[in-house]
Structure formats: C-alpha cells, structure tokens
C-alpha cells in the first residue's frame, strides 16, 4: 500500500502551482487585451477590405486569443489538485466551466481566421455573396465572446472564489472581492444581454468587468509572490489522503 505524500511535498507542489497560475492569470489578461485590440479591423464597417489589408495583424490576434484559451485551461488544470480537498464537486465544476469558456474563446478566434479567408476572396467571389457570410460569422464571434468571457467566466469566478473563501488559501478580503466581482460581472452581462445585446455602452462594460479584473491581478501577484497559505489546516482536509508528517506550521490567511 502506497503511503500518501508528506505535507511538505504538497506544500512545495502547491507553491509551484501557485506561481505558474499567477503567471497564467497575467498572460490571460495581456493576451485578451492585445489580441482583442489586434482584431479591431473586424469591427470596421468595411471589415472585409480592412481585414484583407491587415492579414498579419489578424493572424497575430488569432494566435494571442489561442494562447488566452490555453491559459484558461492551464489555470483550471493547475488549480484542481489545490482546490479539490476543499470541495471536489466544485473544483471539478470549476475545471469544466473554464473548459467551456476556453471553447467559446477558440470558436471566436477561429471565426476571425475564416473572415480573413473570406476577405481574400472578396474580389473573386464578389461582395454580394461574401458579405452575408462574413456578417454571420462576426455575429457568432461577438456572441461567443460575450457568453464565454462574461457569462461563463463570471460563473467560474464565483466558483473559484467560493472555494478560496472556504479554504482560506488566500486572504478573505481577496476572495470576497472576487465573489463580488464575479456576481457583478454576471449581473452586468444579464443587463447587457436583455437591454443592449452585445453592443452595450463601454462604461457599462467597464463597470461590470473592473472589479474582477482588479481582483485577478492582485491574486496573480499574490500567488507569484507568496503562494497559497501553507498551514496544514489550510491545505489539508479530512479525507484528503495527504500525510501530515513533516508539516510546517504557518498562519493561514485571514
């Protein structure tokens, strides 16, 4: 019968995971902002002409959004063993929800490449036939991003910060900020969906997204700098299957 790993091994593993997750949170934010900015020609009125004129920019934007999707999956996968002892069902649910989010991002980014291909056939195929297809693809992209990066991400933020609050793996105030931010994002998404569709005012979008964006960056810095709380009662729970031998004492986050 194999013995469970000593607590020191778990602490070291969680510390390494925390650093990588912190980096991935930053990578996800940066690629989301830059990738979205590079794909702005898709929003122009004459988007087929503008996209064709910025081929390399569109490809780079696609690659950054692809990295964003991988970062989202990576965050969830690395957090699973850390969160699982504090609520296996919710931890697995977090991974599932973030996988759905990444799928929507990949769908959105792929539509950009298809529109690029259509723009290159603009002259030969004729605008009358290409334009409706391009418009449908852009509409699909907007809704995929809306659902994936607002609704689904908001759900994942609520799940993650509920687990962080329970476990005291991070300071309580930070997990509460994440809970408020996730709920605010979900609320603003519902308001946007029924009041404006996907064309909500920028001020409303910023109001909904700012708190959770701030919380994620603070969390990222904290994880890179200090990691998760390393006290035995913070990282272990009954039935976790981890030995307490060699565990070092330290205070949990309050």
Specify Rg, calculated over alpha carbons. Answer: 21 Å
Mean pLDDT: 85
Beta-strand percentage range: under 5%
Q: Which spans of ≥5 residues are poorly predicted at pLDDT below 50?
A: 231-251
* Class per helix and strand makeup: mainly alpha
Largest sheet: none
Distance between the termini: 37 Å
The portion of residues assigned to helices is: over 70%
The count of DSSP E runs of length 2 or more, i.e. the number of strands, is 0
Shape: elongated
- Count of alpha and pi helical runs: 9
Integer tally of domains: 1
Element-level helix/strand string: HHHHHHHHH
What does this structure look like?
This protein is mostly helical. The chain is built from 9 helices and no strands. The protein has helices at 7-38, 47-53, 55-83, 88-120, 122-125, 127-167, 172-195, 202-225, 232-235. The model is unreliable at 231-251 (pLDDT under 50).
Task: Looking at this protein, list some descriptive labels.
254 residues
Short description:
The chain is 78% helix and 0% strand. It is mostly helical and 254 residues long.
Write the layout of secondary structure elements.
Elements: H1 7-38, H2 47-53, H3 55-83, H4 88-120, H5 122-125, H6 127-167, H7 172-195, H8 202-225, H9 232-235
Helix pairs in contact: 1-3, 1-8, 2-4, 3-4, 4-6, 6-7, 7-8
